[in-house]
Design a protein that fits this description.
globular, 10 strands, 9 helices, six-stranded mixed sheet
Length: 238
């Protein structure tokens, strides 16, 4: 930050503007505003990446994580029964939800006071509560979404039925009404061309809420992995 930004930042914080403000001190002489979160250079680059740099919006783990590769191998086994395959998809959902926490802990965690085993109390960390909404895209995303739910047990959980763009369950307007939802986790098993994910994100945008969007999927095909981040640059794909 530069000191010339002081007046702008004062007004922005005072008025509670809709901008997401971050600041980065590049030297010991940099001006830091008390009311604005201090971000890392990596985080700021990720948030400010333009649509043409959409690859930064997609996190892919199978080639860099042995545990992810083993989970992926289990999902492809032809000898697994349906219930066994569902259990693997629950594990995939939990894995991706934990990676999501690692990347976006600032928004998805909160401090909490716990009882210690020795009888005292201590300040710890837990996942965000009812500000998180998990959308299980039916039917394929439901087992994975249950794994995500295990990581976010206080979140709102809803089944989203998509039929040619129509939600056959409660509409998102009804789901979000009266709730302080800030983060929406869209969970699906396989994203092929991205039509279902595109419709649900368009639906969310039509609500005119300032939601942070995350898409968690076991598989995102190359076509969708290139197009969706460019269409929805503020969303993050795991």
């Amino acid at each position: 930050c530069n000191r010339s930004m002081r007046d702008f930042l004062d007004d922005a914080v005072k008025l509670g503007c809709s901008y997401r403000l971050s600041q980065l001190a590049l030297s010991s002489q940099g001006f830091l505003h008390d009311g604005v979160v201090v971000g890392s250079l990596e985080r700021l680059l990720q948030e400010l990446s333009p649509p043409l740099c959409s690859i930064h919006s997609v996190k892919q783990y199978c080639s860099s994580s042995a545990s992810a590769a083993m989970l992926a191998s289990q999902t492809r086994r032809a000898d697994l029964s349906g219930p066994s395959l569902q259990k693997i998809h629950v594990q995939v959902g939990t894995f991706l939800a934990e990676r999501l926490l690692d990347e976006h802990a600032l928004h998805l965690t909160r401090p909490e006071t716990f009882r210690h085993v020795q009888g005292t109390t201590f300040q710890g960390m837990t996942t965000a509560g009812n500000s998180v909404l998990i959308l299980a895209l039916m039917r394929g995303g439901e087992p994975m979404a249950r794994g995500v739910y295990e990581v976010f047990p206080s979140a709102h959980f809803y089944h989203y039925w998509d039929d040619d763009g129509k939600n056959n369950n409660e509409t998102l307007q009804q789901v979000c009404q009266g709730k302080t939802v800030t983060d929406i986790l869209i969970v699906d098993s396989v994203v092929n061309k991205g039509g279902t994910v595109r419709r649900v994100m368009d639906h969310i945008h039509s609500l005119h809420g300032n939601y942070r969007l995350y898409v968690l999927a076991a598989v995102i095909q190359k076509q969708a992995a290139l197009k969706l981040p460019a269409e929805f640059p503020r969303a993050r794909f795991f």
